[in-house]
Design brief:
Elements lengths: L3 E5 L6 H9 L17 E6 L3 H10 L3 E3 L2 E6 L14 H9 L3 E7 L15 H32 L3 H18 L14 H9 L8 E6 L10 H12 L3 E5 L1 H8 L4 H10 L6 H13 L1 E7 L3 E8 L4 H8 L1 H5 L1 E7 L1 H7 L2 H6 L4 E3 L10 E6 L2
Parallel strand pairs: 1-4, 1-5, 3-9, 5-6, 6-7
Antiparallel strand pairs: 2-4, 8-9, 10-11, 10-12
Helix pairs in contact: 1-8, 4-5, 5-6
Length: 369
């Protein structure tokens, strides 16, 4: 099960610099001119998790497999992208394939790095990108709605359901609001399924990343403050990072040296950790573990998933032939000192098909196919 976040924004806001730092690669060309990222670059990063480290220390396995999150660096967008301006069509097609949007906003001043709009204004920059995404969604739905309404009038049940879902979304878009404000509740399963099938750009959750100068990395600045206010109004999330600092950290191999460098700047963690944590929360993700002498591994799952679904993440046969899950809470596993001690203390639970897996559970699945 892969989850990816598309890194978007105007040209020259620091997207590629951030991508390079996050993935510790130089695969994305960070250059001071628009469209330096022509093809979307994809990088996978291990998700930092102290719980995995503690499990490894207890089990001492032959291999360790952390869970991963995928980042996609997407070409910079300009005004008119929804009409194909710049690399608009390509931008929109690439972002449609991602699960969430990391919207990088320039929150620093530097005369040596040109801004495509000529000045620093993160709210204006955010509005440019959001407007293009909303226009693309509006055009997409307006092309479909007339035919759907005709079918619905003719008694087509599927069309009636589609109409009931699309019309509120269309109204929101016409008012300059993203599709997600008119999304059906997940409890309305049929409606929510139809909504997801629309694959709207503005239906994706958004994380605003304020790219600040090095001196503002710990506290933020006047530019990042207005972005946080915007995020709060939208019930969205925002984080502060310095792409330049992240670039420097990525070049340090020694963990102790990295920590010392961060602390010298008044930081407790890297921007990567901030973005990963926020991204996980944004996507509604959690982690369960499998632990044994051969391997300790972290697995990503959607919050609310039941045991058979989580088993299927390992292999489809595990879900198809699911019998039960032998489960230990992370707290019991660490406190008591491993599986055998948990077994002796009666802390291993046998859970059936309706068990909702909890974040941090240590799982062993029994199946028969």
């Amino acid at each position: 099960m892969g989850f990816n976040c598309g890194i978007v924004g105007l040209p020259n806001v620091g997207k590629s610099t951030l991508f390079n730092a996050l993935t510790a690669t130089i695969s994305a060309q960070a250059a001071n001119f628009p469209f330096c990222t022509i093809e979307p670059n994809t990088g996978r990063v291990a998700v930092p998790d102290e719980r995995l480290d503690k499990l490894v220390a207890l089990v001492n396995p032959k291999s360790i497999v952390p869970t991963q999150l995928e980042f996609v660096d997407i070409a910079g967008l300009v005004k008119g992208a929804s009409k194909g301006e710049g690399l608009g069509n390509q931008f929109l097609a690439n972002i449609r394939q991602t699960d969430a949007i990391i919207h990088v906003l320039r929150c620093f001043e530097d005369d040596n790095i040109t801004h495509v709009e000529g000045s620093i204004d993160p709210l204006r920059d955010a509005e440019i990108v959001e407007t293009e995404l909303m226009l693309a969604d509006l055009e997409s739905l307006e092309k479909r709605i007339d035919q759907i309404v005709k079918k619905a009038r003719g008694g087509d049940k599927e069309a009636k359901l589609q109409q009931a879902v699309i019309e509120p979304v269309l109204n929101a878009l016409k008012q300059g609001k993203p599709a997600r404000v008119a999304a059906p509740d997940e409890a309305q399963k049929d409606e929510y399924k139809q909504y997801k099938m629309l694959q709207l750009l503005t239906s994706k959750p958004v994380l605003y990343v304020c790219n600040v100068d090095e001196n503002s990395a710990a506290t933020g600045n006047r530019f990042s403050e207005v972005v946080f206010e915007k995020a709060a109004k939208e019930n969205a999330k925002a984080v502060i990072i310095s792409a330049e600092i992240e670039s420097e950290v990525a070049q340090l191999d020694d963990p102790a040296e990295k920590q010392e460098f961060l602390q010298s700047l008044g930081l407790n963690e890297t921007g990567l950790s901030k973005i990963i944590k926020a991204g996980y929360e944004l996507l509604g993700l959690q982690t369960y573990f499998t632990a044994g002498p051969k391997e300790v591994r972290a697995w990503t799952f959607l919050k609310g998933s039941k045991a058979p679904e989580c088993a299927g993440i390992i292999h489809s046969d595990f879900e198809r032939g699911f019998i039960r899950a032998e489960t230990i809470s992370y707290e019991d596993y660490i406190t008591l000192g491993g599986e055998q001690a948990c077994k002796e203390a009666g802390k291993i639970r046998s859970e059936g098909k309706d068990y909702v897996v909890r974040d941090g559970d240590i799982m062993t699945f029994l199946f028969n196919v």
